[in-house]
Amino acid sequence: MRNLNLVPLNGLRAVEAAGRLGSLKAAAGELGVTVGAVSQQIQKVEQLLGATLFIRHPKGLRPNALGETVLPHLASGMAELSVALAKAAGSHGSALVVSVAPVFAAKWLVWRLKNFYDAHPSIRIRVDATTTLVDPNASDVDVCIRVGDGPWPGLNASRLIEQRIFPVCSPAIAASLARPGDIRTVPVIRDAGSRFDWSIWLEPFGLAASDLREGPTFSDASLCFDAAVAGQGIFMAWETLAHDALAAGQVVAPFEGRFSTGAAYWFITRTHSFKARETEAFERWLRAEMALSFKMA
Q: Which structural domains are found in the chain, ordered by start?
């Protein structure tokens, strides 16, 4: 390992972060330094190695052939260093860090965590609510719950449940909806950041996007759902978002049928976890809670 003396660790961290994130700005944000500092660190590493690792372009940078070869080993090495430091600090007894989308955390997960604590009083959970796709191999995150197609190379990913969508609205609006075609008569709440569109639900009923009325648009699904609760229109929801509000009568699903988006919820961990006991306990509990909440056909 004498060759490790050739290059400073901070430089290797800058190379790994820039390669993984695809930009100097993103790497600077993660490392807590300036863009100029990251650029200088990368240049210093390249000078010491006598070879370039990146191709620079106006929108960022991407690894060249040598960089593509080097970066996976750097990522693996940084992950191992993180694990070693965590063990040295005794963090095997610290919180299990779970990365989830804010809307999943707010509308479903946090309302059930007491059940987990009651069953596992020695395990603490730290919820990291973010829309950023975190890489557990290169962070302190132990578990990611993602919606997508999967799988994710280099990670352990197990499928939880499929994502199914259906329209919801307030009970007052639902009273005017006798059949799917009646949707033409009410405002439609739209999520500007949605990863699916209404066609999944419309086409089986012989309807089209042109049949939908205008309505409020929000950049966040949670706001869209709250607008539906407030009676501002009808919104295309999914089960983890709408389950509790449906049970409480805050919203109604006026039409039968729930339709798959083709995506699913996944339970994702790094390939080697020093919190295996905690992770396995959390996954078992999560699957049991989902089974109680959602009857998947």
A: 2-88 (1.10.10.10), 91-297 (3.40.190.290)
